[in-house]
Amino acid sequence: MSGGIARRDLLAATGLLPLAANATATVESQIRSGMPVAACDVIDAHAHVQEVAAGALWPRGSVELIEDMDRCGIRAAVFSHLSAIMASTAAELRAAHDQSSEIVRRNKARLRAYIAFQPHLALDSRKELDRLLDPESGFAGIKLHGPIHRYPMNGTAYREVYRFAHEHSLPVLFHVYESGAEGVPVLARIAAEFPNMCVILAHLWPGSGPPPELLRASPNLYADTCASSAGRGQIASIVRNCGAERIVFATDATYLNTGGQLAKVGLADVAEERKRLVLGGNALRIFRGLPARASL
Ligand SMILES: [Zn+2]
């Protein structure tokens, strides 16, 4: 924007900034005032980066991710590298993970990464789990993408991941291949068999919202909020039906736009305390070692 003034600059210039950033403000009032959310910790459990050429039409690097986080008031994000998800060789997988690790090292106070498990490179992916398990590597969980890899939940290679995640009490961000009701009993069995593995179902699986009875039966299942579309009142009704403690804020940035994903949760008709659980409280419980809030 040139020649104009951003709303937050205007507020700062008129002395209203401290009022808008008041720690007693609600998430909704801060979003409506055009400010980054500071009322609570906002943690994005599902982000992506991919280093592309400078000047690209759709830049998706870690610099752009942090800029978006700053603009919206997202304190920390856990991302997976798109080149790791798309890797077709062990070398590509390893290189993308090394780059993820380096990105976290540069942004220790803001970012953690997922280890992407590529089931068609099962042996090499398994080695990556061992290599990157140490939290010092910068990784906080495992990412599974069933639709891209066209791989079913009960596939042999995935069972290896479940065992590993259970053994090490790791979170798994899981975009499941089976999107319909037929996946429910399969997922319920997996969740029961590996109770120390915490599974976050990506994109409010199966899109319109996770079945509440599935979440009630499986205490280690959660659902994240990012999606490319949202119905009116969707988030409020999912929180009401599933419980705020089982829903986890996510953006899918830099693939999707950060602001819309935050607004649909921040402006939802949900009580402030429950909203804060969804926006960050749950993620801080699920992910060990996320940067804690500095101060307010
Ligand atoms: Zn994603």
Q: Could you characterize what this model shows?
A:
The chain is α/β, with parallel strands linked by helices and 296 residues long. Helix content is 43%, strand content 14%. It has 14 helices and eight strands. The chain has helices at 7-13, 17-20, 27-32, 62-72, 82-85, 90-106, 122-132, 146-149, 156-168, 183-193, 212-217, 234-242, 258-266, 272-286, and strands spanning 43-49, 76-81, 111-116, 139-145, 171-175, 198-201, 221-224, 247-248. The chain has an eight-stranded parallel sheet. It is globular and about 50 Å long. The model is unreliable at 11-21 (pLDDT under 50).
Write the SSE topology.
Layout (H helix, E strand, L loop, with lengths): L6 H7 L3 H4 L6 H6 L10 E7 L12 H11 L3 E6 H4 L4 H17 L4 E6 L5 H11 L6 E7 H4 L6 H13 L2 E5 L7 H11 L4 E4 L10 H6 L3 E4 L9 H9 L4 E2 L9 H9 L5 H15 L10
The protein binds zinc ion.
Zinc ion binds next to strand 1.
* Straight-line distance between termini: 30 Å
What sequence of helices (H) and strands (E) makes up the elements? HHHEHEHHEHEHHEHEHEHEHH
Shape assignment: globular
Percentage of residues assigned to helices: 40-55%
Structural class call reads alpha/beta
What would you report as the Rg, rounded to the nearest angstrom? Answer: 19 Å
Biggest sheet overview: 8 strands, parallel
* Proportion of beta-strand residues: 5-15%
Identify low-pLDDT runs. Answer: 11-21
Strand order across the largest sheet? 1-2-3-4-5-6-7-8
Oligomeric form: single chain
The set of bound ligands, ions and cofactors reads: zinc ion
Q: In total, how many beta strands?
A: 8
Count of alpha/pi helices: 14
What is the arithmetic mean of pLDDT?
89
